[in-house]
Design brief:
- This protein is an alpha/beta fold and 387 residues long.
- It contains 13 helices and 16 strands.
- The strands form three sheets. It has a seven-stranded parallel sheet, with helices on both faces. Strands 2-1-3-4-5 form a five-stranded parallel sheet.
Length: 387
């Protein structure tokens, strides 16, 4: 029986993918095999020795100590793309809100006073203040072309916009899912100079912190709009507000309010609504539950943020999985330990990601406890278990 601890309310649709005859799921499990989390901040947690995996029912993992868990041999899974449609729709809403000044116009009308005739006159007198622009023909720059960025790029094309994309880490598989009409920028600065709207879909890292700042704002098209539905910190809020006040930028739409932008007339700030739909929560929970189950039962890794993808069809009921440092001769030492136990290797796979590596070995016969203990004793091995 696998034990799973939940740190937030997790969609019942997702938890239904952990069958009750194999899994005990509760927020009170003291020694869980796995943890499923949404936004709970885990950095100050003490992790039990029983922990084998963490699943984030969403995309961002800033609330999880990924590196620490990796050094323990614990994969951290997320659900890339499961909330892509929800975020894409909110980006489209942000485009419409900003290009037509809808929030400001709504606020203007809700504060009108007087008779119907007086209100009508005020409406006619005030509507020119909120004259907007249409999206077809306008250029949108999409920074980050993962699942969400690709969805935003493709729907923007369908709305008649020009799309400029920037992502130095775009994979071949990702490129296949992106329309060939997307123009490529070779740098953030080149994209900023050409775009009427700029939207971000990247994780928050040292390299993406303040991608929009006081220096590069001056290289943007005058009157451009910035949209940030990715992470707080990617945009320098104070610099953007200054640029809006100075007429360099038209508007700033963000999912991450702060005191520096709250109530600013040129800012539309929303309460982190990006993935806040029932469909997105269900999709994320289902995806991460299935990934955790495949790892716990079969050892397969897919969509881990700290370990490589490693998938091996079961060719034998006897499987050893090992997480280890990515150093020379590790595979040889594991093979030697099995050979000296007279175990015939049916199939084997090893993949690495940065400093971490992961090995799966199928044996034609049961793997003795002594062999597993010997593998665990190898310098650099963080985890070894038999499935």
């Amino acid at each position: 029986m696998f034990k799973v601890r939940t740190l937030n309310n997790i969609s019942s649709d997702g938890l239904a993918h952990l069958p009750a005859d194999l899994y005990r799921v509760s927020p009170n499990e003291a020694e869980p095999d796995a943890i499923i989390v949404r936004s709970y901040k885990m950095h100050d947690m003490e992790f039990p020795r029983s922990l084998k995996a963490v699943g984030r029912a969403g995309a961002g993992v800033n609330n999880i100590p990924v590196e620490e868990l990796g050094q323990r041999g614990v994969p951290v899974f997320n659900a890339p793309g499961a909330n892509a449609n929800a975020v894409k729709e909110l980006v489209v809403a942000g485009l419409l809100l900003s290009c037509r000044s809808l929030c400001q116009a709504w606020d203007y009308t809700r504060n009108l006073k007087g008779t119907d005739q007086e209100i009508f006159k005020a409406v006619e007198a005030g509507k020119k203040r909120y004259a907007g622009v249409e999206l077809p023909g306008r250029a949108i720059g999409v920074i980050g072309l993962g699942a969400i960025g690709r969805s935003v790029a493709n729907i923007s094309l369908e709305m008649g916009m020009r799309v400029i994309g920037y992502d130095p880490l775009l994979t071949v598989e990702g490129a296949w899912q992106l329309s060939s009409s997307v123009e490529r920028a070779v740098s953030v600065e080149q994209l900023l100079a050409r775009a009427d709207f700029v939207t971000f879909h990247v994780p928050l890292t040292d390299g993406t912190h303040h991608m929009i700042n006081r220096d590069n704002i001056h290289g943007m098209k005058r009157g451009a709009t910035i949209l940030n539905f990715a992470r707080a910190g990617i945009v320098d809020d104070e610099a953007v507000c200054e640029a809006v006040e100075g007429g360099l930028l038209k508007a700033y739409v963000t999912d991450f309010p702060s005191n520096s932008i709250k109530g600013h007339p040129g800012v539309i700030a929303l309460p982190h609504l990006g993935a806040s739909t029932q469909e997105a929560e269900d999709n994320c929970a289902v995806m991460v539950a299935e990934q955790l189950r495949d790892f716990l039962e079969n050892g397969n890794i897919k969509n881990s943020v700290n370990f490589p993808d490693v998938l091996l069809s079961r060719g034998s009921p006897h499987r050893l999985v090992v997480a280890n440092a990515n150093v020379p001769n590790m595979l040889g030492q594991i093979s030697t330990a099995m050979a000296e136990a007279n175990l015939n290797i049916h199939d084997m796979i090893n993949q690495s990601r940065g400093d971490l590596a992961y090995t799966m070995v199928d044996s034609d016969s049961p793997i003795p406890v002594e062999t597993v203990q010997r593998v665990r004793a190898i310098d650099g091995v963080m985890m070894a278990r038999v499935l």
